[in-house]
Structures are given as C-alpha cells and as structure tokens.
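Dataset card, provenance and construction

Sequences and ligand SMILES were collected as paired inputs. For each pair, a complete structure of the chain with the small molecule in place was predicted and serialized as structure tokens. The example below shows a pair involving flavin-adenine dinucleotide. Curators did not alter the output after generation; any descriptive sentences attached to a record were derived from the structure itself.
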Amino acid sequence: MSFNIVVLAKQVPDTRNVGKDAMKADGTVNRAALPAIFNPEDLNALEQALRIKEKVPGTVVHLLTMGPVRAAEIIRESLYRGADDGFLLSGREFAGSDTLATSYALSCAIRKLGKIDLILCGRQAIDGDTAQVGPQVAEKLGLPQITYAEDIIEITKKNITVKRRLERGVEIVKGPLPILVTVNGTAAPCRPRNAKLTLKYKHAATPSEKQESGSDYTDLYDAHPYLNITEWGANDIEHDPKWLGLSGSPTKVKKIDNIVFTAKESKRLTGSDFEIESLMKELIANHTIG
Amino acid sequence: MNNLFVYLEIEDGIVKDVSLELLTKGRSLAKQLNCKLEAVAIGYQLENIPKQVFPYGVEVLHLADDKRFVPYTTQPHASVLIHLFKEEKPQIALLGATSLGRDLGPRVSSALFSGLTADCTSLEIGDYEDKKAGKVYKNLLYQIRPAFGGNIVATIVNPDCRPQMATVREGVMKKEIFDPKHTGEIRRLEVSKYVSDQDFVIEVIERHIEKTKIDIKSAPIIVSGGYGVGSAENFKLLYELAEVLGGEVGASRAAVDAGFAEHERQIGQTGTTVRPKLYIACGISGQIQHIAGMQESAMIIAINSDPNAPINKIADYIITGRVEDVLPKMIKYYKKNTK
Ligand SMILES: Cc1cc2nc3c(=O)[nH]c(=O)nc-3n(C[C@H](O)[C@H](O)[C@H](O)COP(=O)(O)OP(=O)(O)OC[C@H]3O[C@@H](n4cnc5c(N)ncnc54)[C@H](O)[C@@H]3O)c2cc1C
Ligand SMILES: Nc1ncnc2c1ncn2[C@@H]1O[C@H](COP(=O)(O)O)[C@@H](O)[C@H]1O
C-alpha cells in the first residue's frame, strides 16, 4: 500500500507585511515591493503529505502550482523539504484567472498526473483569503472534500480520517479515497529544509528558468533528471480554452478603491489624572457609560 | 424565477444570526431589484424554521427535510442547492461566510459555473459597463470586499453568470425584523429528486461544537486590546475595566496571535464586526483590517503611546499614553464618580 499525493501550493505576495512602499502614489498595489512567499497554509498541507510519505513507504508527493515562471521557487522549496517532484503550470492562457478558472486549470493538470489518491491544499491563500480553490477543484474532479483539516488521524487504502477545526469546535470525519483535503494553519507546521535535499535540489529548474539564466548546464540536467522541474503550458493539459484565464472567470473586478479615512474631529488628552477624570465625568454625564 | 435566495444555516434547529442578517440585507436588495426573497432550509425536522424566518420578509421558503442532512456534510447540501438553483435560476444567492458557508459555496459555484465572492463587507446594486464588449449590464450585484490583505477595497461583479453568489461574515449586515406577522409560501422539496445516495460519502464520527460564551457582538461597550497591551497578564486590566463598565473585552488579531486573548474576541475583517455604543481601543495601531470591524462604533476612545497611531484618525478621544497607566485611572475615576 502506498499513495500518490498531490499538494497544491501557491506563491503569494506577503500581504501580512505590507510596508509603506507597498502602495503606489495612485493608490494601486505595488506588487514588486512585496516579497513573494510560499502561501503559509500550503506549507501545512505539504507537512501532512510528508508525514504520510514517512509512514507509508513508496508514497509519492507531487507539488503542483500554477503561476508565473518565478513560482518555481516554491517547488524547489518543497523539494528541499521532502517532496518528490514538482509541476509548474504556467502561461499566458492562464492570465486573469479567478478562483474558478484556477480550479479548472489545476483539475486538468491533476488529471494528467494519473491516478491520485489524495489532493492536499491549503485552506486559503493570503492574497485573497477566498478559500475557494480547494472545494472547486474537488467539484471539478467529482471528488469528495474535507475542509479545515487540523490533523490526518488515519489513512488506509480505502479511507481517510481527519480532525477538522471549525469556527467553534472540532469534528472528526471519515471519507473515501480519492479525496481532496484542505489544511488549516492550526495543523502542524512544516518541517524545515533538509540540508541534504537542499544540496541535492539546489540546481533544480524549469525549462524557462534554464533559458533565462542562459547558462549551459545541459550535461548536469542530463545526468540528473530529477533536477528538471516539469513545466506545463495550456497545450500540455487537456482542456477547453473557454474555461481558462479571463474567459473562464465569471467574476470581474469593477473597480479598486484605495482606503481613505476622513479624519474625525477628535479631542486629544494626555492621560493625566485630571484629564482622565474629566473624561469619565463627561461620559457618565452623556450616558455613554454608567 | 430570478429571485434572490439565501441559504439558511441551522444549528440545533435554530437559524443562525448570520442567515437572518442576510435575509435582512436580501430583503432590501430584492426590493430594489423588484424580485422576491426566497430562503432554503436543508436539515431535519424543520417545523420550526418558517416562524423563525418569515418575520424577516421571506416570501418563499424551500424545505429539504431528511434525517441524513444532519449533521452537515458538503455534498448532500451542495446537491440540493445545485439542483434547486438549476430549476429556479436565482439571480443572486447569499451564504454566510462561516466554516460551513465557505465549504459549501465554492462547491455550488463550481458546479453552476457562477462567480462567487467570499467575505463581502458590503453588497449593493448597480450597473456595469464592459467597455471591451461594448455592453452595459443593468442592476448587477456589487460584491464589495477588502482585497490584498485589506489594503484595498475591490468591487466585484459577475456580468454573465447566474446566480451571482457571495458570502458575508456574521455581524457585517444588520439583522432587523421586517414584520413580525409576515408569512410566506412554503415549498417542500422531494428530497430524493435532489440528492443521491452517493452524496452521503462523508461520515461524521465525532462533533463538538461549543456554544459561544463570549458575545462581543451585542455588547454595548467594548474594551479592546492590541499587541501594545503587552501580555495576557496586562489584559486583566481590560477585563477589569470591561467589568466595571458592563462591557466585553475584544482584541486585535495581533493580540490573539500573541495569545493574549481568545480567538472569539477578535475584531476586524477576519473576526467579528461590532457596532457598540463605546469602543475603547487599547494599544491597537488601527490597521485597516481591524478598523473594518469597528469603525461604526458610536464613540471611539484610542489609548496609544504613539501620538500618530493610525487609530487616532477615527477616534473621538485620543489619549496619548501607556495602557498600563491610563486604564487604572479610568477604573479609579469611573468608580469614584458613580458612587
Ligand atoms: C488578510 C488579513 C486579515 C486580517 N484580519 C484582521 C482582523 O480581523 N482583525 C485585526 O485586528 N487584524 C487583522 N489583521 C492584522 C492587521 O493587519 C494588523 O496586523 C493588526 O490589527 C495589528 O494589531 P495591533 O494593532 O494590536 O498591533 P500593532 O500593529 O503591533 O500595534 C500595537 C500598537 O500598540 C501601541 N503600543 C505599544 N505599547 C503600548 C503601551 N504600553 N500602551 C499603549 N499603546 C502601546 C503601539 O504604538 C502600536 O500602535 C489582518 C491582516 C490580514 C493580512
Ligand atoms: N495558483 C494556484 N496554484 C496551486 N494551488 C493553488 C493556486 N491557487 C490556490 N491554490 C490552492 O488552493 C488553496 C486555496 O486558495 P484560495 O481559494 O485562493 O484561497 C491554496 O491554499 C492552495 O493550496
């Protein structure tokens, strides 16, 4: 018994550390000023996959991401931590995808990967906080889904048992394989890079990256095929073009507004005894408190 | 046909507040669109649902009653909605942005190829011009939500696909009874036509849902603490002030992440939205994600050691000082002046 697992992961701008230069003068987001990171909850998903691989020898963990050429960074990061291989889905055809078009493209790529027992993804990506891609991929593939996993309690040839973390509680559920599971940030953190694997995969690259760097390592890649990160364009997956990219995206952004607050007329106090006492008296007098 | 639908989230036979809030909002949107407000209840022994939701102006209530619908699992509920929406072709469908709604919504939208916008903070009706296609769409649902970690606000539309779907977090919309005597039509769905046995593949082995003990949403006074409070120990001062004032303690995400307060107390975009009479922000910088959840408070007092903290822009009273110095004084002078 062994499993074929796909982990879906996304490279996202680090919206948690939006600095002052992240917004341009015209109020639009300066993506270039934000560091690109491995979406945090996708790392939790990767850890769940690696744990299964540890327990069940022969298990293979694939990492799949859709994004620009640069997104291969998170594939390498996954290889350093123990994934077996990675696939980058990239190309113009995917530009402008909303969650539905993204899910469609990912589901076509997963089909190409052959027989898969388990798909793991993060609960949500921090660039949009939508938490939609997981369930939508499951629907597109006709698979059941278990969302908000905190722990995979057991996986057998037929079933998976998962502890889910809900807003106000926990649930333990069991579902049949193949299945898609989305993993919460409350699940175990991902293990760090493994030094040996980091050395081994340091030069792993996609065809686009090899081309960009212009360096001629042909021999290296021929001698070590595992260093080739697979890159698929739209032509490599079986798809209907109308469901990809902009045309496959029912949601359109009508407008983006910068957030501006009109400053209130406020009273400034220093926090001295006298001022605090007057404030409390005033609030009591106007029935705000008391 | 082409009405506005709200999915009712039910726990122990009680329709959740978030659904009643959506009915209230849905009612006003439906009025603007000149269409009906319909609701869908999927569960078991639903006899008590009609009287809970009709006062909110529901005109048609669909009931899918079957023992197997409880506890909730994704596919059976999704199948009912997918089939019902195919028949009824709603123009808008709204769900709570709860763990359940955010599990169910995407599944349904994927099957219907209809756009879904998660976590809207505002819903409006308006027109949309697609300049490239040279088309103007009338009366679309504007799905307005913070994006990019809350640094911008985006207005999303679904010009061509129906239903236009959106989820909204609890507390974002107001809940208001339309007419306590209002009743509407009940339609009982023949369940076997809407779900198949294959939908029931997930087995719930154990389930512990805690009743919320903390109710910051309806507290008239909130004493809220941020990372600047410094420690869980210092938070005790906030509890003390909340206690004497008859309020509740809230927190910023940074304070929750640091373990100073429970997650249920988090206020903001990814927490609860509150509108108390008085909001006292202690050691909170006032990032947009926090402000999104409290800016409608009637009065705001900001206590911050930084005279230029962003929170000051929306505060009625700005106290520049340290939380640990200011709060004891507030407690002391409140007590002194109310004796
Ligand atoms: C997608 C997303 C969703 C988010 N959702 C939420 C949400 O729902 N709610 C939320 O709150 N945040 C949310 N955040 C986080 C938000 O951006 C801020 O990081 C957070 O609100 C900051 O919390 P804070 O003000 O407590 O901490 P800080 O920003 O660290 O501010 C601490 C403040 O305390 C002051 N201070 C320090 N010491 C003292 C003292 N002794 N006395 C008085 N003042 C002192 C400092 O001057 C400072 O202003 C979200 C972020 C993202 C990206
Ligand atoms: N472009 C993508 N490539 C691979 N996985 C993705 C992509 N977008 C989203 N996902 C997965 O879907 C999850 C939810 O994303 P979202 O719906 O954008 O919040 C993420 O945590 C990822 O696991």
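Derived descriptions for this record:
Chain B touches chain A through 87 residues (CB under 8 Å).
Chain B is about 25% helix and 30% strand.
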